[in-house]
Amino acid sequence: MSTHLSDKTKAQIPKAALARHTLLFEDARTRITQWVFAPGDQTGWHRHEWDYVTVQQSGGRLRLEGADGTESFVDYTDGRTMSWTAPIEHNATNVSDEDVRVLEIEYKD
What we know:
Blueprint: E1 2-4, H1 6-12, E2 20-26, E3 30-37, E4 46-48, E5 52-56, E6 61-66, E7 71-75, E8 81-84, E9 88-94, E10 100-107
Antiparallel strand pairs: 1-4, 2-3, 3-10, 4-9, 5-8, 5-10, 6-7, 6-9
């Protein structure tokens, strides 16, 4: 489960719009969320408690800031998938000049 860390967001993130997200499906085992990041949008600091897969649905680039101070970048390609192992605490920001779209599929078991 992704938990929003509001205190960390307020203290460590410059003022920026939050990415739009829509819950598409959820049951006892799976949660599927559609994310749309306009240029400059971010998720805000949050923690993933479940393993998950992302399905990229656009081009663009996200900057991932880790809770440990690391920074990495993900270049998006429509149709590319990536798997992620929880726990992960991070903030993601669209650093490209186009909208970034991604499906996030979380596995609750």
